[in-house]
Amino acid sequence: MEKLKAIIQLIRPELPLAGGICVIAGQIIVLQNLPSLYVGLLGFLTGFFISSAAMVTNDYFDLEVDRVNHPQRPLPSGKISLSEIKVLTAILSILGFLTAALLGPLTLALSIFLWVVAIMYNWKCKETGLLGNVMVAISVTGFFIFGGLSVGGLINGIIWIFGALAFLFDLAEEIAGDAMDMEGDKERSSKTIARTHGKKYALTVSSTLYSFLVILSLVPLIMGWLDLKFLYIFIPLDMAIIYLALKILKTTTAEEGRKRIRQLFLTMTAFVIIFVALSLL
């Protein structure tokens, strides 16, 4: 039982669950309907397993840092060994590749690409600043694209727009988050935009990315790819993003900044859920 608890701690199931849900969302965005149970389940499991493998390897590569900052984590506390974490990573990765392969060769290739991006980020790129931010944003975007690919929808303009929105949102969030974590990043010698160019510059870049997101969000409506009923959720989303981005830009404390970033995350999460629900009506 203790070993199982340690594994759950390593995987952080809420994040792999989010990965699986992003795949399902990508499928629904393309189909404007629910996928078949078979395709939906395989897509969800791929997102879950690949994300879980990424979470586990994060602890593997962060072992020395966690010995100091998070000694209670499963690996530094001895609840799970290095050999066990390697086996767990292999099992999760193979399961993710198998479920992706059952959806087709292209989905398998994309799952391997997303796995490699996650491993490289955890291993070498976490302290690289902008490159690391971009890699995280690619990972999030990739699950939406994977969902569209799994139902043959990459020629659908909407999935690419949503992929771009996810990329811009996550990149802006990562850069803003780094600006709030400057002290911790100093200890890790991270080359974030905030550390190399200053907090104000980083928050300006983040706000600019949020502005591009707002403009891009109007494209599906302007092009007629979406019914006008979606206008009722895009307008509140854009207004909320503009309001919160300005609040982040003017923030005076890291605690306040993190609060606004979380509010933005919850706003976007609610938007995706409502968008998917409206697509099914």
Automatic annotation (TrEMBL):
TM region positions: 37-61, 130-151, 157-180, 201-224, 230-249, 261-280
Signal peptide: none
Annotated GO CC locations: plasma membrane
Membrane topology label: Multi-pass membrane protein
Cell compartments where the protein resides: Cell membrane
Enzyme superclass (EC): transferase
Descriptive protein name: Geranylgeranylglycerol-phosphate geranylgeranyltransferase
Provenance organism: Methanobacterium lacus (strain AL-21)
